[in-house]
Design a protein that fits this description.
Number of strands: 21
Strand content: 15-25%
Largest sheet: 7 strands, mixed
Structural class: alpha+beta
Radius of gyration: 36 Å
């Protein structure tokens, strides 16, 4: 019995020992796993988790650079910056954004339009860390938020720079505006490798100088390392790299001349381009009506957007660069030069103008604008009195292809190359174009209409101004440009803008002089722009034009008083002055203005008086009011 008991105890002891051993192994294995995990986390993955911890502790905040200023040629500021407080939010740090905004509205006035704009920005600007809710907070609103800051994690007050256009609508199409970066622009920025440069930036140049010279104006973004607590609040600044401001731009524009030109339009719509014919510098670029670029800085509200976008006056359309109109009789000096250069006409060649011209085999005659005609007319007088009959015959003798080739030398049908985006090429028609467009051949009657700037022919005011400058220069072309120089924000160095050049056109000087002399007669008594030249102490060379908006039926006579305002003829005037030493070349288009001599030409006179004499306009005669017995076109 005793032996049996000892054996049982020994067996139990062996079982216990085995269990203890297994338990010890298990414990040691557990500690081994823990030790291995600790080694993995603290040694092998140390750098990774250290970076993660630092990222949670340190926030890299982009520092947006100051946008460069835009100034006119005399140093007048056209686009500036000012600082204001903005209420912003990081949506990713706010669990219930709508509820938070409702509570915040009790502290700071947040209008429904602010919330609508914020919602739109939230949908469009997913790549940005911080979005504005309210701009231009008052000091009282900033103080109220500071007291309640603890209640709104993810919200903060930031001091931001805002763009300001002190002249409002004046030169709005030339200067352009900045607006919020949209998704398409984000993709373009990322594709071009500029994402770092735009970090923290939510605005970009959209039109005009602001858009075309965005690379110069934007600057280089800096950064600031900030230590933050668990609530996302900044504790202290660790390090920083300063941003580099954008460069300042000095334009060729004269803003005072621009104001005179815009006011001269009175209530009419239209466009004006005034350039230095020797250098191509644009001194004034008018598109009426304009718009206030300040409306777009914070994101334009729906009401203003609807007014601008749906207005029948189309204030957002840059008529100077994008408006396409028949050139009308402004083309006649160029046609006369084509006839002289080709040998189809001589200075002595004259016709007796009966007031109409007939194409052989066509029953319906082409009528002159003056019933009864102009009597005996040669090339010079045809320009002075704007004789349609003379140019009907000339166009028929030249033919469309020689006309097309000759006019191409003045840049018709092609972009001028101005240094802001949005220019259209216009349309200079010929047989090839008509076949491609309509699958129809070119008829002789088409050529007759082209001869007086009608038919299919379309030009922009900018093209007309550039072509006029070539005439003023005797065949030397210029490329219009608006940038005069770039002022480096870091060094202060001034870099003059070097415009593009084009090859000179070889015309016989005697033919050019004949045309130029005839254009001077246009602004004298008996000419179609006598009102523009009356009493001027300098000589003006010009040419009026009237472009049809709607066609007239056979035998129907145009009566301006019976036609709705939007269907009345356009008024045009091209000119340069002083005629003997041109310092300014101007092209004017007045939409539905009627006659070039009574509507467009007086605008040019006001611009010349200020540009050449420093004289501001006195009491204005209403545009379109013809003087007694005044020749007009």
């Amino acid at each position: 019995m005793v032996g049996t008991t000892l054996k049982n105890r020994e067996a139990e002891l062996n079982v216990f020992r085995r269990r203890l051993l297994f338990t010890a192994v298990g414990v040691l294995a557990g500690f081994g796993v823990l030790a291995g995990r600790m080694i993995y986390l603290q040694v092998i993955k140390r750098d990774y988790f250290h970076t993660q911890a630092e990222a949670n502790r340190i926030s890299v905040v982009p520092v947006v650079p100051n946008r460069g200023l835009i100034l006119d040629r005399n140093g007048e500021v056209l686009a500036a910056n000012y600082s204001a407080y903005t209420l912003e939010v990081m949506p990713s740090r706010v669990p219930n954004l709508e509820k938070a905004l409702d509570e915040l509205a009790a502290v700071i006035d947040i209008q429904p339009r602010d919330r609508r704009r914020f919602k739109r920005l939230l949908e469009e600007s997913k790549n940005f860390e911080s979005l504005p809710i309210r701009n231009r907070l008052t000091e009282e609103e900033v103080a109220r938020f500071a007291v309640n800051r603890y209640r709104f994690p993810g919200f903060d007050i930031q001091a931001r720079l805002f763009r300001n256009y002190p002249h409002g609508e004046v030169a709005s199409h030339a200067i352009g505006y900045i607006g919020r970066i949209n998704d398409a622009e984000v993709k373009k920025i990322e594709a071009s490798g500029l994402a770092a440069k735009y970090k923290g930036t939510d605005h970009i140049g959209k039109l005009g100088i602001e858009g075309s010279y965005e690379a110069e104006l934007h600057g280089i973004t800096g950064s600031r390392q900030v230590e933050i607590d668990a609530g996302g609040r900044a504790i202290r600044s660790l390090s920083s790299s300063a941003p580099q401001s954008g460069n300042n731009l000095v334009l060729t524009l004269d803003i005072k001349l621009q104001k005179v030109a815009e006011e001269a339009f009175q209530e009419f719509r239209g466009a004006l381009i005034a350039i230095d014919p020797k250098s191509g510098e644009v001194l004034a670029l008018v598109s009426k009506p304009g718009f206030d670029p300040n409306l777009f800085v914070d994101g334009i509200d729906p009401q203003n957007w609807d007014q601008l976008n749906n207005s029948p006056d189309k204030p957002l359309n840059n008529r100077a660069l994008r408006g396409q109109y028949p050139p009308g009789s402004t083309i006649k000096p160029f046609m006369a030069l084509a006839g002289l250069e080709s040998g189809k006409r001589t200075p002595q060649f004259s016709i007796s103008d009966p007031g109409h011209w007939s194409l052989p085999g066509v029953a319906r005659p082409f009528r002159d604008w003056k019933p009864g005609g102009h009597g005996m007319v040669n090339a010079s007088r045809a320009i002075t009195v704007s004789c349609d009959t003379y140019f009907y015959g000339l166009a028929n003798d030249l033919g469309i292809e020689p006309i097309y080739k000759f006019m191409s030398q003045f840049g018709f049908g092609t972009r001028t190359g101005i240094d802001i985006d949005g220019e259209v090429p216009g349309l200079q028609p010929n047989g090839e174009w008509k076949w491609k467009r309509f699958k129809q051949k070119w008829y002789a009657g088409d050529t007759i209409s082209v001869g007086i700037g009608q038919g299919y022919w379309l030009t922009t005011p900018l093209q007309l101004a550039t072509a006029t400058a070539i005439l003023a220069n005797g065949g030397v072309p210029v490329v219009p440009h608006m940038l005069k120089e770039v002022v480096d924000s870091k060094t202060g160095e001034r870099r003059p803008h070097i415009p593009k050049t084009r090859e000179a056109v070889n015309f016989k000087p005697e033919w050019v002089q004949l045309v130029r002399d005839a254009m001077v007669e246009v602004t004298k008594p008996g000419g179609t722009a006598a009102r523009a030249g009356a009493g001027a102490p300098y000589s003006i060379a010009g040419k009026t034009g009237t472009a049809q908006v709607i066609g007239m039926k056979a035998g129907e006579k145009y009566d301006e008083k019976k036609v709705k305002e939007r269907f009345r003829d356009h008024a045009l005037f091209i000119s340069y002055a002083p005629a003997d030493d041109p310092k300014l070349a101007i092209a004017i288009l007045v939409e539905n203005g009627g006659h070039g001599g009574s509507t467009a030409a007086p605008i040019a006179r006001e611009v010349y008086d200020y540009a050449l004499l420093g004289k501001l306009p006195a009491k204005k005669q209403k545009l379109g009011d013809d003087s007694p017995n005044e020749a007009t076109d």
